[in-house]
Amino acid sequence: MPKKAESGATTADLLAYLFGPGERDEHTAPHLVAGWDPGPPCPARDPGRLPLADPALLLDAPVEALRGAKPEEHVWHVSVRNASGDRLLSDAEWAEVAAAMVHAAGIAEHGDEQACRWIAMRHADDHIHIAATLARQDGRHPRVRGDILNMHTAARTFEARWGLTPMSPLDRTARRRPVYRRGRESRPPRPRRDRPGVPAAHRPHCGRARPRRHRPRMPAVRAGFSRDTRQRGNELILV
Question: Is the entire prediction scored with pTM above 0.70?
């Protein structure tokens, strides 16, 4: 099941956590299984040849070359985990899953050489982490709207193909709340709420037309009346 983690602003800090021992020494044998560049060198397996800071610089390079404003939080982070009863996947299988996830999310579509840079690393038997920077190599911003829903769709393909435990359903079939626009649709009347013990004359007029208030009519004055008049309230007083 893909699970989107919090975005961040520092690629080096995320990699230091992923390749480190973890909060309770739960990380075992951290290593890369895939990336934007086929066969990326792994800093955990060859720390003398590739320091941990180098992958962070390589991932951040397109961010520095972005045209226009740079995103405040440019680190995209997702974990993909198997159910507890599923079989263990190999590194090659996890690499295939990672490539499908970044393709579905809009991070790096298949065959797009100018896509975002990303890596997939594994430090446990049952899950991987995918880290990417939100900047394409051609200087444009990626479109990752709806990424988690698209990744869930891709994950179901592997569940059916490898006989894995299906995750909980997540789709767009739920009934949406109607949107009322002036001149197009009218709102339905509110339901009438009768309160016991309250006379009908004092109940709120829910869903009904509000009655007109009674206004007393002014007494008419005959045309040609010669005496002077003045008004007080709703009365005409002859002077």
Answer: no
